[in-house]
Amino acid sequence: MTPQNNIKSHVKRPHFKNLDALRFLAASSVFIFHFFSDLKSFIPISEDNFLYKSITLFTSKGLLGVNFFFVLSGFLITYLILFEIKHKKSFNIKHFLIRRTLRIWPLYFIIICIGFFIFPLLFSDYETKHHIVNYFFFLANFDEIWYGANDSINFLTSPWSVAVEEQFYLIWGVLLFGLSKLKKLNLNTLIILLLIISFIFRLQNYTELRIIYYHTLSVMPDILIGASLGYSYFKKSEWIERLKKLTKLKIVMIYSFGFILILLKTLLFSNYLIVFERYIIALFFAFILLDQIHFKNSFFKIGEIKLFNHLGKISYGIYMYHLVVLFVLQKLMVLFIQELNLNNYIAIIIYFISGILGTYVLSLISYHSIEKPILTLKKRFN
After folding, report:
1. Does residue 15 lie within any of the structural domains?
2. Residue 215 is part of which domain span?
3. Is residue 5 part of a domain?
4. pLDDT tens by residue, 110-149
5. Residues 6 or more apart from 357 whose CB is under 8 A from it?
């Protein structure tokens, strides 16, 4: 083996700065959404309460953290597959799927065990209408469509997005493997075709909100727009380099426009216009990704906050465990409020601090005792 070939065979997979911090922001936004939406389960809050309405005007947008995760996954997976094809002259789909399995499965199946086996033994009033078979085969998003509306066990909702990502890894991996064998890697044509299919599906189902939010064909725009960004970034497309030189003022203006769009999304994307919502917001999230990893005039790189980088490493745990923690705390808060006659505002503060600390500690323990040891196995399949 020549020195040049030896170097090529040991090329390190790229690491993008600031993505860990962005992961934490996405996970924390989902936490904030669930925290405020679940308050009414143990504290009587009127829908007309001005303070609550004002706060939830912002926190209700927290679920878009899931959309951001989809865009990020589409970008990273596509870029890394193309990187492997370039440097290894092939794509090992078996190793790819094993690496994804080692990352995704442990926490996913821990939540399933908690939801279907452990909590039914711990809580006498625990009952779920979700079907474990659907979760086992990574069809949790379809299970949410079929049974979620009639089920109060909220923490079994979180795995739906993980199921979508697992579906994406399998389908996208197979498609890119096939294209690599055909030596045809013009992904944008395929992406555009799939975006059109998703648009037609969303148009046909725009009145069915659970389908619009959970169905794989409906959420594809997030992943596909992320994939298109990954492809363009890998190819060093001209438009990427032009955007890199945007002035700080223009970047701030785009951020401002994007966040206003998110804040007003319920008004702007009502009725059939909901069909366009995922496309437009995904484009904004793709812009944020590009700004954080590539722009030279960014007004702020989120990774400069070291704490966010730390929390980003355990963000998968934060996303998966936070609803379990909140579920247990809600039951405890009901008892505390009854026994100690707690003021509602004090109860909310205790619930919030306990939720943050409980989620952090559980996620940290999980990362070091479960995720990290398992992730070391990925090196065997690089």
Report:
1. no
2. 27-381
3. no
4. 999 999 999 999 998 899 999 999 999 999 999 999 999 8
5. none
